[in-house]
Amino acid sequence: MNFTLRIWRQPAPNAHGRMVQYEAGDISPDMSFLEMLDVVNERLMERGEVPIAFDHDCREGICGSCSLMINGIPHGPMPGTATCQLHMRSFRDGAVITVEPWRVRAFPVLKDLVVDRSALDRIIQAGGYITAPTGGAPDGNAILISKATVDTAMDAAQCIACGACVAACPNGSASLFTAAKLAHLGLLPQGQPERYRRTARMVAQMDIEHFGGCTLYGECQDACPKLISIDTITRMNRDFLRASFSAGRGAVAEPD
Asked: Measured in Å, how far apart are the chain's first and last C-alpha atoms?
């Protein structure tokens, strides 16, 4: 297969960037998108040119590093698929493919297709954890949990923090990411003691990081490679309102 690539090149964070065209010829349809970029980079280096910088790590759809905007769609045209799992057979032979970094204020471009997504890490640091007592581990069956609750928590826990939801949102909101991280803790017994304090802290950190507000457009769940539902945002908003109401009364609400 043969492709024409239009790729964003930006040598440094404060440098001017531009779209540069490359020809990617003799590409196997079974290659992943990142493998195709590897081939392009090998050919660039053979010619003595600077290779294209892009993020990658596990290449198994788990780490969330492969954050690319492909033809205006986060992670490309296949739903529920991270860039590293997107195969070139998903495109027609001879297609022109435009590749850009995430275009979000909170994710500044570092070089070419690489952005700084550490704002998501700081949201987690603000409260995305539980306080566990030291000592012997409690019996795993001591607290019964319904299957529906476990399934919902696990669905939210699939979030890989890639930032696709932010890149797809017209407002640049990180609400789906934050809500997913809150849901998988807040639904289970271990996460209940700090549930509302956690919500208040992580939502406040979103604002500090200059993410936009959520208006429930729904593009985030369509772009999410793990297909996490915006139902998690509704749950987050409910807990945030309760946390705010309790803070106004000088107390932190305890979960029911």
From this structure: 58
The amino acid occupying position 188 is: L
Residue-by-residue DSSP string for 36-96: HHHHHHHHHHHTTPPPPP---S--SSSS-----EETTEET-SSTT--GGG-BGGGS-TT-E
Q: Torsion angle of alpha carbons 218, 220, 225, 226, nearest 10°?
A: -70
Q: Write the pLDDT tens digit of every residue in 89-137.
A: 999 999 999 999 999 999 999 999 999 999 999 999 999 988 877 777 6
Q: What is the pTM of this model?
A: 0.90
CA distance 211 to 104: 8
Dist. CA 103–CA 70, nearest whole Å: 12
- DSSP 3-state assignment of 173? strand
As a whole number of Å, the CA-based R_g of the chain is 21
H or E element at residue 8: strand 3-9
The residue among 137, 124, 113 whose CA lies nearest residue 184 is 124
Instruction: Please state the φ and ψ torsions of residue 31, each to the nearest 5 degrees.
Output: -70, 145
Helix segments in 90-146, DSSP class H: 118-127
Buried-exposed string 56-72: b where 16+ CB fall within 10 A, e elsewhere: beebebebbbbbbbbee
Q: Are 70 and 98 in contact (CB under 8 A)?
A: yes
Report pLDDT digits (tens) over 132-153: 777 776 666 678 889 999 999 9
